[in-house]
Structures are given as C-alpha cells and as structure tokens.
Amino acid sequence: MAKFVIMANQSTYNDIKKQVELSERGTLFFPDTFSQTGSSDAVRSALVRLCENNVLVRVAQGIYYYPKIDTKWGSGLIPPSIEEIAKGIAKRDKVRIAPTGSYALYQLGLSTQIPANIVFITDGSPRRITIGKGRGILFKHTSEMRTFAYQSQIMTLIVTAMREIGEGNVTDEQMGIIKTHLEKVNEEDFKHDIQLAPIWVRKALMNK
C-alpha cells in the first residue's frame, strides 16, 4: 500500500511539473488548478517539492508562481506584482476586481507611496491574502456594480483616484498628470465611461 502511494505521489509530481513547465513564465497556480491530477494531499506534496526544487515559488498560502527570469540584466527571478496576484485570484474565483484609494493614486503616479496593504473592491467574497511580512491584498465586497462597468482600465483608475482625492481637492499638477493618462483612452471608451463618473469628475474630465 505504501509503495502504491509513493508511486501515485511521484506520478502526480511528474504530471504537475510537466504542466508547469509547459506554461508561460509568470503564470500563477493554485492547488485547485491540478484537482484532476491527483488527490489533494498528493497535489500539495507535489507543489511543496516543486518549490524545494526551485521550479515554483510560493508567494502566499495556496498561491504558487512559475517565475519569470530576468535575461536582460541577470538579476534572477522577477517576482509577480501585487496586481498580477490579485488578478490571478480574481480569475480563479471568477469575480471582478478594481483597485481603490491609495493604490489607484500610486498606479497613476499621483503618489509615490506604495501601500503595504493593497485594497481592491470586488463583487466576490471579502478576504485578506498575506504576502510576505507586513504586506497583503484586501478584497472588499461592494454592491456598487457601476465600478465594474468601465470599458477602460485607465478610466477606472482615474475616476477612483479622483474620488479618493475628493471634490475640490484635485490640484492643477494632479490634473496635468491625469490628462496625460487620458490621452491613452480611446474616444469610444471615453464617451462610454465618462457617463459612469460622478458629475464633478465628469465636468473636470470633459474639460481635458
């Protein structure tokens, strides 16, 4: 019986290793990804071994990464961004997410501070994912579905950032940065998305 279990575990390990190495570097994996490959114990054991053998990197509990390699500068492995991890979780859970607050400001260059805990709103379940010491991703449930109706990701960031700053508090310098981002939004998306923005944001952006 023990020999059979060892053989089954080795088979699961080989199958998962093959799937990983056929995947694009930068791909995130979860134990559920390999639910058809073997038992849950065998899958967990295989993922641990793949990390020990430097094939995968564990970035958080239950989240594994097939690392990109820096071939240009030779600095080694390129870790996934917080956003890549958040999008990977959202894809797995089949939910929508959107960045909020200080993270939207940082992505647009309106702030130089990277928050330790990145907050995303979601139409899925609320949860917190710990990533390293003192860092994490917080998913906050929202019933405001309008946030997910934007066609342009840049417009989502702009509106979110302006709402974070607040009406009457957007400086000329910040508006100048926002307008450079608006130039990347195509006309069709802008016409659609501007109708979803709060009235004061709409007025500010229509004068771009």
Characterize this entry briefly.
The protein is of the alpha+beta class and 208 residues long. The protein is 44% helix and 16% strand.
Rg for CA atoms: 21 Å
Q: How many DSSP-defined strands?
A: 9
Termini distance? Answer: 72 Å
Structural class call reads alpha+beta
Strand order of the main beta sheet, please?
6-7-9-8
Helix/strand order, N-terminal first: HEHEEEEHEHEEEHHHH
Strand percent estimate: 15-25%
Low-confidence stretches: none
Helix content: 40-55%
List keywords for this structure.
208 residues, elongated, 8 helices, 3-stranded antiparallel sheet, alpha+beta, 9 strands, 4-stranded mixed sheet
Describe this structure as you would to a colleague.
The protein has 208 residues and is α+β, with helices and mostly antiparallel strands. The protein has helices spanning 2-21, 40-52, 82-93, 101-107, 153-165, 172-182, 187-193, 199-206, and strands at 28-29, 57-60, 63-65, 68-70, 76-78, 97-99, 117-122, 127-130, 136-141. The strands form three sheets. A four-stranded mixed sheet has the order 6-7-9-8. It has a three-stranded antiparallel sheet with strand order 1-3-2, with helices on both faces. Strand 8 and strand 9 form a beta hairpin. Helix 1 (2-21) crosses helix 2 (40-52) and helix 4 (101-107) packs across helix 5 (153-165). 25% of the residues are buried.
